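mind reviewing this fold:
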Amino acid sequence: MPHELYNPEPNVFDYQGIDWKDRLVGDDTTNSHPSFVNTVTPTTIQQCFLYNTRLGFLTKDNVSLSQAQDWYNFYYTSALTSVSSDPIDLSCSSIRPAVLHGVVPTAQGLILFSKNQQFMMFAGSDGPLTPQSAIIRSISNYEMDTNIDPVDVGTNINFVSKTPSYSRIFGMQTRGYEESPVIQDISRAVSQWIPETIDSIFSSPQNSLTGVFGTDSDRLYLYSCLLYTSDAADE
């Protein structure tokens, strides 16, 4: 299980185990272990994140969220009934293999990334995300590099897609629950200029700036999207 880096006082950090909550009610049928716990076939947690007062893990094609305001508890409060604060554990339904490796929280919900497909996890009804309202739907089918996490650039999400010869940078803008996102190939003007050796991406939302680089290279590739008002354009 994951550990934590705890900051008890200024300039002091302790790397320690977490006091994960045990299952207090039910059994493997009425209150099963979260999907990232597999006693038969060991699984790997691909990513962890915080969203709406819940701690979340990505494992294979599953998204596991803890109890609301109880980050270290992944079990139901009661084996008989379900309440809104209970954990959420869903799988991405797809005809393609989907091993989730990246996640970006947005106003519409959680954007989930796999190698060949992107999903959105959101509340199907107006209100907070609960076990009863949580839904995961596919929103696009773009290939991306699984070793480079997507980055948030204000209203857009940028991610890297690679070929055997070069890399491409895509920008995604979500448009709501029932709408497909707008995808733009922001590296199209220099489609074969960025090498396949890049291994990191970063962003500066305040400056509308995205950059990529490789640890074995001395080159830095930057993209800036500047927005102008009509008055500024006239000048």
